[in-house]
Write the C-alpha cells for this entry.
Amino acid sequence: MSYYQYHEFQTTDRRLSEADKQRLRNVSSRAEITSTSFAVQYDYGDFKGNQKEFLARWFDLHLYVAAGGTRRLMIRLPARFARRATVERIINCCEFAEFIDNGEDCLLDIFLYDEGASYDGWTDGPGWLDALAPLRSDLLSGDLRLAYLLWLATADREMLEDDAREPLSGIGPLTEGLEAFGEFLGIDPDLVRAAADATAGPDCGEIPSETALAAIKKMPDDKKTELLHRFFEGDPLAHTDIRADVRPSDVNGITANGVRFRTLSELRTRAAAIREERLAARERAKADEQRRRRLELEEARRKRLDRLRRHGDGVWNEIETELSGRSGKSYDQALELVLDMHALAQESGNLAGFHDKLDGIRLAHGEKKAFIRRLDDNSAALRR
C-alpha cells in the first residue's frame, strides 16, 4: 500500500563538499542533492538515514511531511544558543515542541500529527522548507516570535485556559516566514492576525540601525575583537550572534515594561472580529464582482440588440442557419437570438409579429425536440 512521505534537509551555514554529497548519495539513490540541500519523496518504502545524524553532520533544518497530517520541523541551533531558556519557558505548555541535545548542538524539534479532514491536503512537501528557513536566523538573532506561534498553536488546540496571557507583547508585523509557520502549525489565520495586531516588543522584529550602533559602541573591546575575528574566519554564526548581542532586551526576557499583555480570551475575541470583517469584505467583493459582471452582460446585450435592430427580420434567417447545425451549441445560439428578438418586439410593441415568426419556427422545426424543449423551458420569458 502506498504511503506518501517527504524528507528535506537544508544547510544555511555552509555548503556541502563533493565527498559529503557522495556520502548522502549512498543513503539514497533517488534523492535530489545539491550543495545546500537533500530532498527525497517516498510513496513506497522509507527513509534509510537518521535525521539527527544528518543534522549533526551536514544540515541546519529538516522537514518531514507524510500523508494524514503528519509534519515535522527540526531546527539545529548551537549549544551556546543564548535564548534557549527563554524559548523553553514560552513553549513549556506545548506538547509538540521541545529542545533536544544533539552532540555539540541542540535541536528545536516540532512534531505535529493532526488526523482529520482539515489536514488531508498535507501531502505537498516541496517548497515548505524554503518558506520556513528564515525562522532559524531570526531565532538565532534573538527574535522569539517563532516561540510565540508555538504557544498560539497550543492555545488554538484548546490546551490553554482563557485567562492565559500571551508570552510576548505581540508578533506584528508578520514576516513571510512567520505567516508560513502559522500555516504549517495549522493555526486559525484570524487568530494569527489578532496576535499580529500588537507590535512585537524589543525581543523581536527588525533592529533599528541606530539601536545597533549604540549597542556596538558599548561593547567591551575584547567582545568586538572576538566578533571581528569570527567574521574574518568565516564563522557562519558570527552575523546572527552580533544581532543577538545588539538586540534590546527587557529585564526578564519575555515581558515588555509598560505593556499589558492580552489574555487568550481577548485574542479570541479579536480573532472573531477579524473573521467577521474578513467575511464581510469577501461578501462585498463578491457583490461588486457580480455587479460588474451584470453590467458587462447588460452592455454586451445592448450592443447585440443594436446589431439585431439594424438587421431587422434578417435575424430570423440567422436563427434558421443556427438550427441547421443540429447541435446543442447551435440550438443555444438560436435560442439566444429568439430571446433577443422577443426583447426587440417588446420594445417596438410588435409581440404579435414576433409570435407569428416563432410559431412558424416551431412548425418548421418541430422534429428538433431538443430545441423545442429549450423554447418550452423559456416560455415565461417568451410570453405573448
The longest strand covers residues 70-78. Residues 312-377 form one domain.
